[in-house]
Amino acid sequence: MIMAPYESQVLTTPFHPRTSAYCRTNHWANWSGYTTVQVYTDVQLEYFAARNSAALFDLSPMTKYDITGPSAEAFLNRLLTRDIRRLGVNRVAYVAWCNDDGMLIDDGTVFRFANNRFRLCCQERHLPWLLDSAFGFDVDITEVTESIAALALQGPTSCAVLKSAGFAGIENLRPFDLAEYELHGASIHISRTGFTGDLGYELWFHDRHALDVWDALMEAGRLYGITPMGSQALEMTRIEAGFIQANVDFLAGGRATRPGGNLRSPLELGLDWLVNFDKGHFNGRRALLAEHQNRTSRFKLVGLDVDGNKPANDALLYDHRDREIGVVTSAMWSPTCKKSIAIASIKHHVDADHAGIWADIYVQRELKWRRIKATCRVVERPFFNPPRRRITPAGAH
Q1: Among 136, 138, 156, CA closest to 51
Q2: What stretches in the chain show pLDDT beneath 70?
Q3: pLDDT digit string (tens) for 211-244?
Q4: What backbone phi and psi angles, to 5 degrees, belong to 5?
């Protein structure tokens, strides 16, 4: 018996009949109200599929808003910190938006399908904020999360899989390009985007075609090592790529219960390149401009190379005088980089290159805790940045 959406506390994605069949671990989690796979069989196997062949990830719970109308561009330019007027048709842009205090509400991607037709994708649900921000604009905002199915196909052989499935010319898409294709009667938008920092694509289409598209990709990828990937493996790849994650590396605006110190501005997250002060007014511009001019940022986000092989999860950071200077927000042992890496938020005044940073790591083995003081070095992000991520035409590998 199929339950109606209002009868279940957690929804299933359009791919659930396939993802549940592949999920041997029965390891699920709630992502924005949807039950999603954490690990299908083995997190390491899924991770190495993303790095060595092709990994298929169910992206459907990503929150999606269609924004259309004569004022769509003007509205987005007012809402977002980036100058959307520069975004061409059939292109995608990484974006962020703030409250009036210049604190980050969320980040995400904007897809431009036509002059006055956009789609905003993000982690959290923001419809009330978007509707309030649209006051005075001739624009329609519709949440399409349930009706638009999405898959991320990531890894060195992802382009070869799509070509085998019948997407002719897919290799010519540049990073952040967007194109429309047809497969078995389904209209599919494919963007050369992803959250792994590798060669990869994201497919967007109506949910009624979900199972047909999944089956076509899995069949086309049989000779290319295609493997379904859960959220844990994706998390490993995004840390290696140096990407930040909402409610992990920063609190989304609606999540903070103590806004005074827990929220971050884009400048404090290394997203200053997303802030265009020359385009005119946008939400938070006055506060961000004051922060930029007066150098009042409280924090900065850095990449760390951590000594040893123990991930510095949630570790506090100290300088050579044992003064607390920050905290690790994301950490892992990187199988590809062969080192312990981390993303950390540290106090802005700290000279990160010469501070002598060390992490306070606690490791439990059989109910016994051991404290490790691991030396850290500030390094550039991304930690993993293969040339195939950008090369066009994309290689078959």
Answers
A1: 156
A2: 1-8, 254-261, 353-355
A3: 999 999 999 999 999 999 999 999 999 999 999 9
A4: -55, -40
The strand pairing partners of 65, in sequence order, are 120, 143
* Angle, helices 210-220/158-165, rounded to nearest 10 degrees: 110
CB neighbourhood size of 345 (10 A): 22
∠ Cα 36 185 40 (to 5°): 20
What is the separation of C-alpha 349 from the centre of its chain, rounded to a whole number of angstroms? Answer: 28
pLDDT digits (tens, 9 = 90+) for 142-157: 999 999 999 999 999 9
266 φ/ψ angles, rounded to the nearest 5 degrees: -60, -35
CA pair distance 73, 68, nearest whole angstrom: 9
Q: What is the pLDDT of residue 228?
A: 98
322: which residues sit within 8 A by CB, 6+ positions away?
none
> What's the CA gap between 217 and 167, in Å, rounded?
11
| Domain ranges across the chain | 10-62+146-240, 298-382
In CATH, what is the architecture of 298-382? Beta Barrel (2.40)
As a whole number of angstroms, the distance between CA 281 and CA 269 comes to 21
Top-tier CATH class for 10-62+146-240: alpha beta
CA dist 229 and 19 (Å) reads 10
Q: Which residues pair with 182 in a beta bridge?
A: 187
